[in-house]
Amino acid sequence: MNRYNPTERIGVNETEKIVIQNLGWIFREQPIVDVGLYAIIEQVENGEPTGKFIAVQIKSGSGNFYKTDKGLSHYVTNIHYHYWINLCIPIILVAYIPEEGKTYWQEIKENNFKKNKKRWKIEIPFKQEFNEKSQNRLIKITSEKNDEKFDVYCGRVASNDFEDIISDLESINDATVCINNITAIMNLQSEEIGKKTEQFSLLNEKKSNNYSSEVSMLYKGLSKTMNLTAKRTETEIELFSQLYSVGISAFEKLLINLQVFNLKFENFGGDSNLLRQVPSQIDFAVKKFVVLRDTLKSMPTNNFIIFKEAKNQYLDV
To answer: Which domains does the chain have, with CATH numbers?
Structure first.
């Protein structure tokens, strides 16, 4: 059971207050919060709803951010990044800092992110507080990206999109293939490390005249294998992130549609065990990866720079 987080709840309430009181717009909290779509706000003009929407992701508490001189840095996973970027309506990130009583915001779009080796980073400037002064920029955002098929009043896409939803849902199956590929890659790497360890042991026992050059060759061979494994694993992880984000988005849409039309998942040829299997597959892959990572950490580099670089690169992945 998830623990209750009052700070998160306060952040949602504070955002709703600003939307309703300061902007005079409509705030609709979402019933399903998975990858991070907390609410949808609708622009109001002269007291009339305009049918223009913005999705809202809310993060509360300074622990979710790294503070800089100019603002707040927030890091997200590949899954969150791809999910947000591919939404059919514009989306903003709202940061509520209860210690300061301040609320800031930033538009979530591709060119506002920078990628490091593991995650994506988005900057939220202190000068961009979320209040009535944000209205003009928010209006511009709604006019740049809105999908008329999105029916916010029912919290769903148009009913005739069921086939597209089911098709997108199959991306979770494709994502599990990536998990299996990652596991297979790690198994091969583990076998390779086992073989090289045996060869190191034999060399240490014999201590031949060519000991140094033979050890160097072993380290170079292992380094090359690790570089290839790291690249292949990184590619599979990136692909998994994209496929899984599409699948989870489709699953959220499907759940709401089933509730609205009082239907069952099986009516569309879906496998109700599909999502139940994914967490265990991810856990299995992660456990194997942790074992492999710990094994690599314990391996001495013996001042071989090429192996040290390969080892660090693989540990980063």
So the answer is: 6-153 (3.40.1350.10), 169-316 (1.20.1050)
